[in-house]
Each structure stands twice: as C-alpha cells, then as structure tokens.
Amino acid sequence: MRKLAGFIFIIGIVLIAGAGMFAFDSYMTDDRRSVVHGEINTRLDDGAEQYEQNREEGCRRSGCGFFAGISSMTVAIRDGIFLSRPFDPDTVFVETRGDWTQFPYDLEIVETIVDWEIERTPVRISTSNRLLQYFDYVASLRRSGSVKIYAQDDNLIVIAVRVLNDGIRAGKSNSAQQAADVPIPFVTIDGLPVRDYPKINEVGIGLSQVISPVDYQHLSMDFDGQVEVTIVALAEDADIIEFLSGLDVSLIVDSLLQRPAGYTAGVGMIQNTEHPETPE
Predict the structure, then answer these.
(1) Which residues on neighbouring strands pair with residue 146, listed in sequence order?
(2) Domain check: are 187 and 224 in the same one?
(3) Is 160 within 8 Å of 229 (Cβ atoms)?
(4) Which residue has the higher pLDDT, 33 or 62?
C-alpha cells in the first residue's frame, strides 16, 4: 500500500511539473524565448571566459571556480555540437626555412627564453610569469590552440596560435569585434599589424612594483578577436623580421568566417620605418 501511495505521489509530482512546463511554454512567445536563450548563452559565455582567464592565471581545473567550470564545459559541448573550429592550429605555423628547426612545445625552453621559472600562482604578478602561464595553457588545449618552438643558432622563438570563441561563433552573427588600433606596429603582414610590447618585466603591483629590463621580445597579432598569435623571441629584431616573413596569415584568414578588418591579401610584410627599433 505504501509503495502504491509512493508511486501515485511521484506520478502526481510529474504531472504537476509537466503542467507547469506546459503553462510556461504557452507563456513563452518566440520573442521571450529568444531573450531567455540569449541571456542564458551570455551567462554561459561570461562564465566560460572567466574560467579561461582563471586557468591562464595558473589555477588548476578543480580550483578555477565551480560555476565557471560548469559554464566552460557546457559551452564546449554546445559549440562542439553546433559549431566547429575554423582550422587546425597545427597547420598554420611558419614553415621551417634555411637552418631554422621546429620543435614541439617545451616549457623549459620557454623558461629559458624569458629567463624565468614558472610560478603556478596568481598571487605574485609578473609579466614574464604570465607569459609562461599563457603558453603552458595554450599548449594544453586539445583542439583550439597549439605552441611550437623554433631555433636557429642562438636564436629561439616560441609561437602560440589560439582560436578564440569568436573565431568559432563570429561567422554565425558577424559579431567579431575589430582589433584595437596599433599606432606603431613592429611590422604589418598583409595589412595586419604585429604589435610589440616594452622589453620589461613588471613584478608586483602598486607601490611594491619592480620593473626590470628583459632580453626577449614579446609580439602579438589580433585577428579581430577570432584568433590570437603570441610570440616570444630571444633574437635580434632583424632575425625576427626575417623569420616572420615566412608566416602565411592567409592560412588563418581564409579559414575564418569573418575577415579581419585591414586584411589585404598579397601585400606581404611591410616594415614600419617609424618604429624606433625596426631595422632599415
């Protein structure tokens, strides 16, 4: 008798829930569904972005935030089912020419380039440490990122190629945001600027901040928020420029669903004579 009563109780709960869902569905017009759907996706995207940021700063999967972790997993499943990456990051790297040699990712080599040993903690803020954490993070991505190392005599260059969320979704809504202007780029490749950063390492924050010079060069390219290419090089500018002349950005751009603003196919590399450190 008790089992029968329990069964009837469960059936009653299911019927009540079903009636509630039916009433809710009747209430939800197409416009309301679109709004709710958009709000849910926005919250998931924000949570997934926070998860990615937490991981870049050195957190481990279990300590990156519960909601952020769930959001990242949900977004990965959603985009994996309905969307796909525009290209395989392993296929767009600079082809080795001359006596350049390509190697797979090796954290110790990147540590040698930046002259810093990685600290897996977000507590101590350091420019060099953040770069190490970033390269280590991109190298851990299964499908949307890859890192390669190049060597030539004493020259060392590491490149990370990462497909961002907008690189997967932008073509559906034409939503990719135009990259920030780079007034004096290191060079431009087919109209896309290569940005360089001050050769300094900042440790600490506020009054306790310590700034020291570094030997490595930090460069980046932003494909309108769809793809980012990050480079750290222990080499002279002339050697870096010669190396980058072999970077075929069309392999990236032609695969994107939204073409980056400023891209002009076939222009090639142009050195900026206004850049204080660019050789003639």
Answers:
(1) 161
(2) yes
(3) yes
(4) 62
- Smallest Cα–Cα separation from 161: which of 110, 228, 85? 228
> Given CA atoms 163, 168, 169, 170 in this order, what sign does their dihedral have?
positive
Three-state DSSP state, 6: helix
101 and 149, same structural domain?
yes
Cβ pair 144, 89 in contact under 8 A: yes
Tell me how many domains the chain contains.
2
Determine the 3-state secondary structure of 88 from DSSP: coil
Q: pLDDT for 73-102, tens place per residue?
A: 555 554 544 456 788 999 999 988 888 999
Q: Whole-model pTM above 0.85?
A: no
Please name which of 82, 41, 135 lies closest in space to residue 49, comparing C-alpha atoms: 41
Do 65 and 109 fall into the same domain?
no
How is residue 82 annotated by DSSP? H
Token digits of residue 161: 């190629």
In a domain, 111, yes or no: yes
- Long-range contact set of residues 87-93: C-beta below 8 Å, sequence gap at least 24: 87/163, 87/251, 87/252, 87/255, 89/144, 89/145, 89/146, 89/161, 89/162, 89/163, 90/146, 91/251, 92/161, 92/248, 92/251, 92/252, 93/146, 93/148, 93/159, 93/161
Report which of 65, 247, 52 is spatially closest to residue 164, judged by C-alpha positions: 52
Count CB-CB contacts under 10 A for residue 194. Answer: 23
